[in-house]
Every structure is written in C-alpha cells, then in structure tokens.
Write a structure and sequence with these properties.
By secondary structure, the chain is α/β, with parallel strands linked by helices. About 40% of the residues lie in helices and about 20% in strands. The structure holds nicotinamide-adenine-dinucleotide. The site of nicotinamide-adenine-dinucleotide has 31 residues, from helix 7, strand 10 and helix 8.
Length: about 475
C-alpha cells in the first residue's frame, strides 16, 4: 500500500519528497510506503490550512455545526474500529485485541465525542461595564493555523488528542504523525472529510523530523503542539521562539509509585504491572520507579516479580497477548542499554532483562524488575520507555516525596496507602500533573493530562485543552 499526503481534503502527490517504508515491529515486514514530506509539501499543507482558516469555512461556523461534524466523525470512526485497530497494530506491534481494539479504540471514540460536546461551549465570552460609558466584551477566538506533531506510541489517540481540541476551538490544522506510524492518522483525516469537516481544515503530512522542523519554522503557523521527548520539546521551543509561536508541549515522564507500609501489596503489584507493561511500557505515564517503605520492601519486590512474570508477551495478533514488541530495533537497544548499564553498575535483575525465549523475530523484551540501585542511577533518572521497573526502599513520608520528585520529569505519579490524610498530603507534595491514589494509569476524556517541570506544559484532554487553542480578544465599545 502506498500513501500520498492528505492536503486540502484530498490525496496529494509530494513535491519532491522521497518515500519511507513503514515496518511491522513484530515481524520486521513492510506494511506500507509513505511520503517523507519536503519543505514544499509542508508549505502546501500550511497554505491550505491558512486559506481554510481565514475564509471562515470552519472557524465561523456555529459551535453547533462544528460539533455535529465532529459527532459524525465519531460515528464513522466507530464503524471502522476493527480496520483502524488492525492498522494500528501492524504499524506499532500493539496487541490487537488487548490494546488496539480493546483499549485505544473505545477511548478514541469517546475522546472525539467529548471534544464534539466541548465544541458547543467554546465562546465563554462575557460582557461587562468596567469603565463608565463603555461595554467590554471578551471573545475567545481560535488561535489560527496549528502545527501538530505526534509520537508513535498511541498514533491515532495522539492525533485525536491534538485534532479534537483544536477543531473544537475553530482552528485549522497541519498534523505530522511520527515517522514510523502515520497510517491511522491518514485514515482519520480521510474520515474527517467524509464527516463534512471542510477541505483544508485537517491536513496530514507524513515524514521525519525535518518535516516537523519545517512546520515549526513556518511563519503562517500560529501555534505548535508537540507530544514527544523532552529533548525534542526543547528544540521545538527554541525554533518556535524565532517566530514567537505559542507552544504546547506534552513530553517525557518517569512516574514514581510510592508504596506505604499500609498499602495492599496485591493491588500494588496488579496496578504497577499493568502500568509498567501496558503498550510495552511505551507510555509517558508508565509506572517506572517503585519506592516501597522499608518494612514492605522485600514483600513488594516479591509481589512485583510474580506479577511481572505472569504477563503474557507474544504475537500481537494472538487474542491472549498482553504485551507486544517494542516499536523498533533502536528502541529495544535503548531499553536493553539502560538495563545492561544498570547491571554493570551493580544492580540486580530480579526478572527479565533479556529477549524472551522464542521471540527473536520482532523487537520483544521481557518485563523486567531491577533492584539494588540508588537515586542518582541513570535508570532512575532517565526515561527508559520499555517494560522495566526499578524498586528501591524509603524511610518515612518525607523521603518518599523527595525520591518521587527527584527527577527532571513531572507527568504522573501514584501513591498506595489506606491513610486518607497521607494520600492528601503526599499527592499535594508531588510535583506531577496527575497523581493517582491506589491506582496507576487510568485517564478519561474529562480529566486534564499534562506535565509539570520538564514534562512540558499545556493540557491534553478535558475542557482545558480546548482553552489552550484559544486566544482572548477584548472588544471595548463606547456608548457615546
Ligand atoms: P520524539 O521526540 O522523537 O518525536 C516526536 C515527534 O517529534 C515525531 O513526530 C518527530 O518526527 C518529531 N520531531 C523530532 N524532532 C523534531 C524537531 N526538531 N522539530 C519538529 N519535530 C520534531 O518522540 P517519540 O520517540 O516519537 O515519542 C516518545 C516520546 O514521547 C517519549 O519521550 C514520551 O514520553 C513522549 N510522550 C509524551 C506524552 C505526553 O502526553 N506527555 C505522550 C506520549 C509520548
């Protein structure tokens, strides 16, 4: 299958771009060929989005009309979930039944419906007389053409988390999916057209980092929203500064799990294991650093090892598989590199730390538990992005919070305790955008998702995300 670019509501030939192969990480076979967009392609997509924005074909529709088109999109998407999930599974290696169809698709449909509903309540404009003889009106307007750059871990969900709030706000969009996983974003763009979202409102360019860079540099793009690594976030912010664009950054994470003396260890093991292995640990909110109160350290390790060993790793197309391969050879080298260096520095590998037996064709890696490390270790401080957890002991609430906060990231954390007071104190003291108490990983369309510190700023999901794509204008009317 060969795909073109999706520009101005149609499949469009590239202007000088080369092509890239999309690889199935479970088999190393080629799934499709896509365009590696050139600078001229990026410009064509931005021009289409610019024309569509300024002639008002989307931004000047009533909120109800925008909402109805998005609801139609949700219905079309829902009728095709099996096809979308299969494509998602082929390009990412996600288990089809457990992840792609079972988890990502229902959430995606709900996300689109949520943003369709949010589209009806975007104005928030109000009027007041704040100076004698004048009425002030505060209008919430769409920011304009938005460049959206997505990662490979949840391709279609990330596309929806970007398009949904931008479309609800009335913006037009050029979306660049990650280089290796663009297929479901292209499918989504075609469905937007079928749903009646006008031509030029949603444009998708496929390609590598250079195409992303060209989008960030483009003078007609008013805002850039990136989900990616913290390193890329810094580059994007520096580039965006040259044209003083708004930036919205959803970056890396390194979630701590604080396990207090009174915690239910079966619950800790179950939730942490799911949090650490869901999507093969390639999740910015993945459970990664377990800190257990000293008195429960030994039993916490035991419970975690048992639960991590029980996870079923294997063929993504087998319905009983819970964990598929990592996304690429490079990603597996990265994960194995972290584990091997930790081992060389004296860490103990309690389980995993290798390619599972019989699974050497794709990029598989066994769920791994590591101990005997200290807080400054690279594997504690760095984002591994694989099914790997570390376990360390702590003494007292203050040290738990200190260890939890002592990384550059601040995306998600969890606390396991039966003491409500402690749950309240610790969740307030943790510098993370999401803190779960007695769970790890659930999200809903209504709940804001985004980072503190070097995990970025701006929110995905929730009504707050829509606000990020709006700008306030003050209109002051003299009565005389
Ligand atoms: P990445 O940073 O390598 O790439 C992300 C996207 O940015 C890709 O589309 C890439 O082509 C593009 N890009 C890279 N360099 C660029 C540049 N200089 N200018 C413009 N665009 C550029 O990240 P990845 O490896 O695709 O994804 C994994 C990362 O994403 C992890 O760090 C993970 O934590 C993070 N992530 C964060 C969230 C969140 O909500 N905070 C969600 C998912 C993933």
């Amino acid at each position: 299958m060969e795909y073109k670019l999706w520009i101005n509501g149609q499949w469009t030939e590239s202007q000088g771009g080369s092509t890239m192969a999309i690889e199935n990480p479970a088999t190393r076979g080629t799934v499709a060929q896509v365009v590696d967009a050139s600078r001229a392609d990026v410009d064509a997509a931005v021009q289409a989005a610019k024309t569509a924005f300024y002639d008002g074909r989307w931004s000047k529709l009533t909120p109800g009309a925008r909402s109805n088109a998005m609801l139609k999109l949700a219905t079309i998407f829902e009728t095709r979930v099996e096809d979308i999930a299969r494509t998602e599974s082929l390009q990412t290696g996600k288990p089809y039944a457990f992840n792609a169809l079972g988890a990502d698709m229902p959430f995606a449909v709900d996300n689109i419906r949520f943003f369709a509903a949010a589209a009806r309540d975007v104005h928030g404009s109000h009027a007041g007389e704040y100076l004698g003889g004048f009425t002030s009106i505060f209008r919430r307007e769409p920011v304009g053409v938005v460049g959206q750059i997505a990662p490979w871990n949840y391709p279609v969900l990330m596309a929806i988390w970007k398009l949904g709030p931008a479309l609800a706000a009335g913006c037009t969009v050029v979306l660049k999916p990650a280089p290796g996983t663009p297929l479901t974003s292209l499918m989504l763009a075609e469905m937007c057209a079928e749903a009646g979202i006008p031509d030029g409102v949603v444009n998708v360019i496929t390609g590598g980092n250079d195409a992303g860079q060209a989008l960030v540099e483009h003078p007609d793009v008013r805002m850039v929203s990136l989900t990616g690594s913290t390193e890329t976030g810094k580059k994007v912010m520096a580039t965006a500064a040259k044209t003083l664009k708004r930036v919205h950054l959803e970056l890396g994470g390194k979630a701590p799990i604080l396990v207090f003396e009174d915690a239910d260890l079966d619950l800790v093991a179950a939730k942490t294991t799911l949090g650490a292995t869901f999507n093969t640990g390639q999740d910015c909110t993945a459970a990664t650093r377990v800190y257990a109160e000293k008195s429960r350290y030994a039993s916490a390790k035991e419970a975690l090892v048992e639960a991590m060993r029980a996870v079923k790793v294997g063929d993504p197309m087998d319905d009983s598989t819970e964990v598929g391969p990592l996304i690429s050879a490079r990603q597996r080298e990265r994960v194995a590199g972290f584990v091997d260096r930790a081992k060389a520095a004296g860490a103990t590998i309690l389980t995993g730390g290798q390619v599972p037996a019989g699974l050497d064709q794709g990029y598989f890696y066994a769920p791994t538990v590591i101990c005997d490390i200290d807080q400054s270790a690279e594997i504690i401080q760095g984002e591994v992005f694989g099914p790997v957890i570390t376990v360390m002991p702590f003494e007292g609430e203050a040290q738990a919070v200190q260890y939890g906060n002592d990384v550059q990231y601040g995306l998600a954390a969890s606390v396991f305790t039966k003491d409500v007071g402690r749950a309240m104190r610790v969740s307030a003291a943790l510098e993370f955008g999401t803190v779960w108490v007695n769970d790890h990983i659930p999200l809903t369309s209504e709940t804001p998702h985004g980072g503190f510190k070097q995990s970025g700023f701006g929110k995905d999901l929730s009504a707050e995300a829509v606000g990020d794509y709006q700008i306030t204008k003050h209109v002051m009317i003299s009565h005389v």
